[in-house]
């Protein structure tokens, strides 16, 4: 295995193809090997780790546990760069309202469902859940993974739930859909986004490229 390896964790629930293709594209010419893996030993050995997620959080948590990969992800969270994407971000928190599901507890806070019934958007249309579309993302503090990314850049979202970290120090970016909410979290060697960088064109690739060089 190459010394500089990023493992994209395959526990059966991630948007693996698009995430891995984006990371491979970002890694081109960077001397980084991208490994899509369901083997805990390869996650333990990797220099850095990407945790994708798609679907219901309860299913994601169950599959992560049953696959034997949960301990390897917790090990990564303790000692090397870890990036969560979409439900991969929600899993990092303590608890989700989605089917009353406990998370990994790496970032204090809750995952909450949008409560937008009966509310209208500025154009007069109703807010829809899940939210599907492009939002401006506003950085709440500087972070190396946002290096060179203009504040207010557009990113692509698909979700019915959002994260509410307990400590404002863990909020890395916010956006607005009905209400303002946290769409990126960061703590020590952990960084995660609710939006999909792999579906967000050049600004998304910039995040993956920055993650590959991040030295927390």
From TrEMBL:
Domain Glutamine amidotransferase stretches: 17-211
Name this protein carries in UniProt: Imidazole glycerol phosphate synthase subunit HisH
Active site: 86, 196, 198
Cellular compartment(s): Cytoplasm
Alphabetical list of Pfam families matching this protein: GATase
Organism annotation: Roseateles flavus
Reactions catalysed, as given in the entry: L-glutamine + H2O = L-glutamate + NH4(+); 5-[(5-phospho-1-deoxy-D-ribulos-1-ylimino)methylamino]-1-(5-phospho-beta-D-ribosyl)imidazole-4-carboxamide + L-glutamine = D-erythro-1-(imidazol-4-yl)glycerol 3-phosphate + 5-amino-1-(5-phospho-beta-D-ribosyl)imidazole-4-carboxamide + L-glutamate + H(+)
Associated pathway: Amino-acid biosynthesis; L-histidine biosynthesis; L-histidine from 5-phospho-alpha-D-ribose 1-diphosphate: step 5/9
UniProt keyword terms in alphabetical order: Amino-acid biosynthesis, Cytoplasm, Glutamine amidotransferase, Histidine biosynthesis, Hydrolase, Lyase
Function: IGPS catalyzes the conversion of PRFAR and glutamine to IGP, AICAR and glutamate. The HisH subunit catalyzes the hydrolysis of glutamine to glutamate and ammonia as part of the synthesis of IGP and AICAR. The resulting ammonia molecule is channeled to the active site of HisF.
EC number in record: 4.3.2.10, 3.5.1.2
Annotated CDD domains: GATase1_IGP_Synthase (cd01748)
Quaternary organization: Heterodimer of HisH and HisF.
Sample GO molecular function, one term: lyase activity
InterPro entries, per the entry: Class_I_gatase-like, GATASE, Imidazole-glycPsynth_HisH
Gene this chain is encoded by: hisH
């Amino acid at each position: 295995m190459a010394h500089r390896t990023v493992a994209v964790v395959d526990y059966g629930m991630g948007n693996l193809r698009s995430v891995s293709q984006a990371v491979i594209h970002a890694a081109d010419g960077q001397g980084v090997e991208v490994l899509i893996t369901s083997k805990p030993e390869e996650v333990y050995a990797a220099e850095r780790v990407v945790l994708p997620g798609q679907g219901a959080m309860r299913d994601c948590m169950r599959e992560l546990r049953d696959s034997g990969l949960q301990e390897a992800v917790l090990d990564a969270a303790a000692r090397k760069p870890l990036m969560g994407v979409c439900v991969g971000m929600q899993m990092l928190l303590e608890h989700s309202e989605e089917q009353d599901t406990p998370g990994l507890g790496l970032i204090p806070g809750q995952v909450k469902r949008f409560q937008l019934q009966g509310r209208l958007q500025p154009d007069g249309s109703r807010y829809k859940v899940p939210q599907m579309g492009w939002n401006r993302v506003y950085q709440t503090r500087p972070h190396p993974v946002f290096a060179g990314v203009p504040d207010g850049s557009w990113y692509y979202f698909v979700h019915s739930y959002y994260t509410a970290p307990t400590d404002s120090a863990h909020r890395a970016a916010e956006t607005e859909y009905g209400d303002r909410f946290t769409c990126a979290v960061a703590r020590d060697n952990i960084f995660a986004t609710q939006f999909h960088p792999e579906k967000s064109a050049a600004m998304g690739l910039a995040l993956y490229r920055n993650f590959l060089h991040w030295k927390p």
